[in-house]
Design goal:
Blueprint: E1 4-5, E2 11-15, E3 20-23, H1 25-31, E4 43-46, H2 62-71, H3 81-92, E5 104-105, H4 108-113, E6 121-123, E7 126-128, E8 133-136, E9 152-153, E10 160-163, E11 173-176, E12 182-186, E13 191-195, E14 199-203, H5 208-221, E15 234-239, H6 246-250, H7 264-271, E16 276-286, H8 290-302, E17 306-315, E18 334-341, E19 360-366, H9 378-381, E20 393-396, E21 405-409, E22 421-422, E23 443-445
Parallel strand pairs: 3-19, 4-5, 8-23, 9-11, 10-12, 14-21, 15-16, 15-20, 17-19, 20-21
Antiparallel strand pairs: 1-2, 2-3, 4-22, 6-7, 7-8, 11-14, 12-13, 16-18, 17-18
Length: 455
């Protein structure tokens, strides 16, 4: 019988070796908004848990299989099946316990699907429709209308900060260095966003000029060394790049690397290395394409980072079944995270190797939520930090802020809009699983040369 740790926070199960983890995705984001001094008790609106596996889209005839093979000649080998099956067996051995916590349901997906049917009115940076407000970074870049500006430090005495226009937030680093969350109110058109304690963000594309500005601001706002990082450096960096795939092409919300005028990964190749601390961990989400994996390895090499671990987020139904075939040729039920380290050192409490043939494999299991909403890795990654109370973290292509972290991207405030949240303790409401709420949903829409992590 596998030894496991007591459930904690958003982690519903984890074995002692930490090779198998069951995580609740919306709860992982909710808890990441608070600190021990000021925990976040609000709940993130979510989608209904998947009840049954998706219908198979695998080719059946010999000709169809041959066409798929010709179109996808070099697929990645599947994640080790034995680790997946053993991991699921460990979790199921807990007994008749759920694979996710109860959820507050919001009709967010329905609103998004109605978007194309609704007429829109354009007003400055905001596009208003009957379904949503959108903060949109102009696709023609920042130079013609708004040069990068100095940092905006939110009030350290109040819990609310008034900003007149969205342009006052774009292309600058905004920081809340206080112990409390700050509510940012955009007077036009009247939207509120919550900025967690000790967090900073830059709402912009990941382009060449923006990267130079971000680099300058990181050095300016982090001028002192820590126990593990030099000024302007981070101990953990997480990336969720806009890799090209079928899901991205179907969605009008995304601008993949192929569609981009300026490849953000090439931009990061040039500037990110100097912000990686000597013993830092770098995590990068990839798709199941060999070319994407190769591109991630090239980025690691340019930053002086070597692969030490490989994680898979296995998407399961509410009953613990993979949502599709484990070794499908068209799609697989998991996404991969590559974990690199700046030097060849054993991780704190973890056995690791820099050889790709013997990298440590770990399985994260979770019931998927809204499209492209991934689990927050903060609770999983912190045990790997040598200095857990003073480490610095940065998430690039982020879709929400995280307490104590820096975040950068053009959808960086997406899930911090107040309308995505509801007050209350999940354990006090047994009917919350099917609570629904209609209403306007503001989207931080990406421009055509950037995106925020594609499922």
């Amino acid at each position: 019988m596998a030894h496991f740790m007591e459930p904690s926070g958003s982690i519903l199960y984890q074995n002692q070796a930490r090779t198998v983890t069951l995580i609740d995705i919306p709860l992982s984001i909710s808890l990441s908004q608070g600190t021990p001094e000021y925990p976040c008790t609000d709940l993130l609106y979510s989608d209904r848990p998947v009840e049954n596996p998706h219908p198979s889209i695998e080719p059946r005839s010999v000709k169809a299989k041959q066409r798929v093979h010709e179109r996808l000649p070099n697929p990645l080998p599947p994640f080790p099946r034995d680790l997946i099956t053993q991991g699921l067996a460990e979790i199921q051995a807990r007994g008749r316990q759920a694979f996710c916590s109860e959820r507050r349901i919001n009709q967010i997906r329905l609103s998004r699907h109605k978007e194309d049917q609704a007429p829109k009115k354009t007003a400055h940076l905001f596009e208003e429709s009957s379904n949503q407000y959108e903060i949109k970074v102009p696709e023609w870049g920042i130079g013609a209308w708004c040069e990068p500006q100095g940092p905006l430090i939110l009030s350290t005495t109040g819990e609310k900060y008034e900003i007149q226009r969205a342009s006052d937030l774009i292309n600058k680093v905004t920081a809340n260095f206080s112990t409390r969350p700050v509510l940012v109110n955009l007077s036009c058109p009247g939207l509120e966003y919550r900025v967690p304690p000790y967090s900073a963000f830059m709402l912009s594309r990941v382009g060449q000029r923006e990267a130079l500005h971000f680099s300058k601001m990181a050095s300016k706002l982090l001028p002192e060394p820590t126990l593990s990082a030099a000024p302007g450096q981070f101990d953990f960096i997480l990336l969720d790049p806009p890799w090209e795939n079928r899901s991205a092409r179907r969605s009008k919300s995304y601008a993949s690397r192929r569609q981009a005028n300026e490849d953000p990964m090439r931009v990061l190749d040039k500037m990110l290395g100097k912000h990686i601390a000597p013993d830092a961990l770098v995590a990068c989400w990839i798709t199941n394409k060999a070319s994407v994996r190769d591109a991630a390895f090239r980025a690691f090499e340019s930053w002086g980072v070597e692969l030490v671990e490989e994680w898979a987020w296995l998407k399961v139904t509410a009953h613990g079944e993979p949502i599709c075939d484990l070794e499908g040729s068209m799609r697989r039920p998991y996404e991969t995270v590559l974990i690199g380290k700046a030097v060849d050192v054993t991780l704190d409490g973890y056995e690791a190797s820099t050889s790709p043939k013997s990298t440590t494999k770990r399985l994260i299991v979770g019931v998927p939520d809204l499209h492209s909403r991934k689990p927050c890795l903060k609770e999983i990654i912190e045990p790997m930090m040598k200095h857990r109370l003073s480490y610095r973290a940065l998430e690039i292509f982020a879709r929400n802020l995280t307490a104590g972290w820096w975040s950068w991207g053009n959808e960086v405030l997406k899930y911090n809009w107040k309308g995505y949240w509801t007050a209350g303790d999940m354990g006090d409401d047994t009917d919350c699983l099917y609570e629904q709420r209609d209403g306007a949903v503001p989207e931080l829409k990406p421009v055509d040369d950037m995106d925020q992590g594609i499922a």
